[in-house]
Each structure stands twice: as C-alpha cells, then as structure tokens.
Amino acid sequence: QVQLVESGGGLVQTGGSLRLSCAASGRFFSINRMGWYRQAPGKQRELVAHITSDGTTNYADSVKDRFSISRDNARNTVHLQMDSLKPEDTAVYYCNADLHPWYTADVRIFWGQGTQVTVSS
C-alpha cells in the first residue's frame, strides 16, 4: 500500500528551472533513502541524486552544480530543484525510495510512475 506521487515536471526553455516533488504515502515505518533517477530515449536509467535519512546527498556529475535535492521527513517528501536546465536533461524522471514497509522486516524499493521533463533549445 505504499505509493510515491510525483509532481513538477513540464516543459521549459534552456536555462530555466523546475522543482520536482515526490511524496510517499501508505503504511511504512521509515524511509531510509529517497532520490531521483532519469531515463532519456535510447539510454539506460541513471541516478540523478539521492538523499539519506540523515541528510547525506549524492549527485551525478552531470547535475552536481545545477541540481539540489532535499527532503522533508515530517511530510515524507523529497524535492529536486533543477536550475540551469539543458536539453540534455530531457528525460522521464522517476522517484525512488528505499523504505521499511509495515508488513516486513526487510527494506524494499519503491518507484513512482515517472514525470516528463523536457528542455527545449
């Protein structure tokens, strides 16, 4: 019964900004890590950024100086602020969470449905 709901995707021009959000809902005890992956046409899905429960972050080199990830633990939400967007950033962005569901002692991986980000040149 865990669900990740994404928002904030859209169409922007080169140099513009978007803010992606992902909220986790359902029955779980805690979220260990939340983040974003993306997949462009003809390419493999790749990590964009993630953040752990203690605030440790990790970024792909291609976005490190332009994107910023944060989380609101009280709302079980992760945000990705994307600035200075480039056409190369065009992809479907997927929210990802490693969390502990109520029905098992194991940590499980959950995915959102994906949100389209398109950067025009």
Structure summarized in a few sentences:
By secondary structure, the protein is mainly beta. 0% of the residues lie in helices and 60% in strands. The protein has strands at 3-7, 10-13, 18-25, 28-39, 46-52, 57-59, 67-72, 77-82, 91-101, 108-111, 115-120.
Spell out the blueprint of helices and strands:
Layout: E1 3-7, E2 10-13, E3 18-25, E4 28-39, E5 46-52, E6 57-59, E7 67-72, E8 77-82, E9 91-101, E10 108-111, E11 115-120
Parallel strand pairs: 2-11
Antiparallel strand pairs: 1-3, 3-8, 4-5, 4-9, 5-6, 7-8, 9-10, 9-11
SS element count, helices:
0
Rg estimate, integer Å? 14 Å
Looking at the structure, what is the overall shape? elongated
H-E order: EEEEEEEEEEE
Would you identify the regions where 5 or more consecutive residues have pLDDT less than 50? none
Distance between the termini: 40 Å
Structural class: mainly beta
Estimate the strand proportion. over 45%
- Main pleated-sheet profile: 7 strands, mixed
Percentage of residues assigned to helices: under 10%
> What is the residue-averaged pLDDT?
95
Number of distinct beta strands: 11
Oligomer, anyone? single chain
